[in-house]
């Protein structure tokens, strides 16, 4: 059986990979547009499902409250950077600077989750809950992946 932590890590690997690849792109290229669309979609699906099936259940406990507040604040910061990238010309030199900030934030956030939050959450959530949340998260994540956030990307 998969636990919520293993389920979240799968998406974390995809996010790291896409963030790295995005920084290798230049100018207003089809490659940059495609990778940005994929990263945006991945972050959206992951964040939405993770908030609902990881952070909300943790928030219901005293020890989980601080973790949750911190993580949700970082999700919000990443959303704002995505928004900024969406509104910036793909060919602008500032685009890659913002993408670099986003990549750094993504890497920082995932590392913090995997090395601190998961351990703390492991003590708060029961074994059955860890498995149930994994199933719920995966279903929700897939649903949002399929929704495609293309409409948010400037063409």
TrEMBL record:
Task: Please name the Gene3D superfamilies in this protein's record.
Answer: nmb1532 protein domain like
InterPro entries cross-referenced by the UniProt entry: Hemerythrin-like
Hemerythrin-like domain location: 3-120
Q: Mind telling me which PANTHER family this protein's record contains? A: HHE DOMAIN PROTEIN (AFU_ORTHOLOGUE AFUA_4G00730)
What is the protein name for this chain?
A: Hemerythrin-like domain-containing protein
**What organism does the UniProt record list as the source?**
Acinetobacter variabilis
